[in-house]
Amino acid sequence: MTDNEKKLLQAQHRLEEAQARNRERERKARNHRLIQEGAILEATIPHTKDMTLEEVREYLYRLSHP
After folding, report:
1. How far apart, in whole angstroms, are the C-alpha atoms of residue 38 and residue 34?
2. 41: which residues sit within 8 A by CB, 6+ positions away?
3. What pLDDT, on a 0 to 100 scale, did the predictor assign at position 18?
4. What are the C-alpha distances in Å from 50 to residues 37, 53, 56?
């Protein structure tokens, strides 16, 4: 393997690692947002805590489609 091939392979690995870090950051940001939204839902509509996910979905659908 030549030096240029090694450098190219290293650059590809660095790129893959950077992409993996970005995916991880995006996943964590999405999870954080979803948790915050769930907390807001429970705080503003407390009875949703006792509902199943399907019941919450139907309830929110009915609210948004009068």
Report:
1. 6
2. 48, 56
3. 98
4. 17, 10, 9
Question: For position 66, what pLDDT does the model report?
Answer: 80
Residue pair 48/42 in contact (Cβ under 8 Å)? The answer is yes
Quick one: pLDDT at residue 14? 98
Mean pLDDT over residues 3-16, rounded?
Answer: 96
pTM score, whole prediction: 0.73
Domain range for 15 is 3-64
Check: CB of residue 14 under 8 Å from CB of residue 21: no
Q: How many domains does the chain have?
A: 1
What distance in Å separates the CA atoms of residue 56 and residue 62, rounded to the nearest whole number? Answer: 10
